[in-house]
Amino acid sequence: MTLVSVVVPVYFNAASLRSLVFRLQNVATCIPEVGFEFVFVDDGSGDESFSILREEIFADGRIKAVRLSRNFGNNAAVLAGLTYASGHCLVTMSADLQDPPELIPDMIARWQQGFEIVVAARQGRQDPWISQGWRGCADPGRTAGWSANAPATYRPAEARR
Q: Domain tally for the chain?
């Protein structure tokens, strides 16, 4: 059976973790021919994130939780997750639900078709008005054709066979 490792760096995400775990479990249920493990890496959160993860470990044996001694940053947390992942393929995603777990089945299907790398690219986003203003100040050229009213949507994009 193919094993997919989902690596999730966690930093002050207590509010979204239970929902994320629930959505990941639903994704795993939709693809019964694929095994899953969920590797969460607490990157020095000061909230209840790790306590929630410990509870989830007892409820679902597919969940692993790694706790870093302090905040090392997102990249270090992903690297730590890679160290503990044992799957045939790997998915990384944010714990704050910006990355929809429901894209995972399509991404796995493309990987099974022979693509080595599959990336989900955001097609649009919906930011608060204050962020829109700052974004325009930072790089006005990047806002051309961008619609603040468009919701964030994603599509799988193949990178390489």
A: 2
- CATH (domain of 59): 3.90.550.10
Q: What are the tens digits of pLDDT across the range 103-155?
A: 999 999 999 999 888 888 777 656 565 555 544 444 443 333 333 333 444 45
Confidence (pTM): 0.79
Output the six-digit token pair for 39.
Answer: 């590797």
CB atoms within 10 A of CB 64: 18
Provide the domain limits for residue 41: 2-113
Non-local (6+) Cβ contacts of 74 within 8 A are 9, 11, 43
As a 3-state breakdown, the chain gives helix, strand, coil percent values, each rounded to 5, of 40, 25, 35
pLDDT in tens, 73-91: 999 999 999 999 999 999 9
